[in-house]
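DEPOSITED CHAIN:
***
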Amino acid sequence: PERPEWLRDLTISLDNLGRVHEDRGNLERALSVLEESLQVVRRLLERDPERPEWLRDLTVSLNNVGRVHGDRGDFDRALSDFQESLQVVRRLLERDPERPQWLSDLSVSLNNVGVVYRNRGEFDRALPAYEEALQIRRRLLERDPERSLWLRDLSLILDKVGDVYEKRGDLDRALQSYEESLEVKRKISGKDPKRTEWLDGISVVMGKLDAIRGRMSGGKAEA
């Protein structure tokens, strides 16, 4: 019952099951399954607290549990999970600051922290988390500027940065973020024009740009 590779396989199966429950809207069941997975990962780490792959499993599991807490409206517990995940991945990066997978994991955890703060209306706290995540996405793209997945992640975080600026009333910076996001989305769409996901993303950000420009022109007219 304590063979490490079997325990790790168990966490993978539990994570997959948890995602199915989550997708079906059964959040209570999803949380139960994902918390069991988290407990198994912690048991593994009791044997070897510094094993990188198990530490990374911990960050992923914490993000999974935190996401469900957030979906249930329990933002305090979600934030606690995401902050622990953030702490763990920063520990990993102390060993290898340029490992792409860990940098991507860091960006995910920062994004999750930003989402909680945004949902709580704490935009001044959401913005630093989003902006650090944005910096990481730019660093990753310096290595492979044409990687579609990283371009998509860049466009998504630009949208969130723009959303926070818009909520704070900084329309110029919101506009700048949305315009860059649109440029990136068009670049991705050009690689696969038939993929509706990209086209939908372009439509959404164009709507945000129109709304921002309308507010800006209205303000100038009133002035």
User: Anything to note?
Assistant: The CA atoms of residues 114 and 126 lie 4 Å apart.
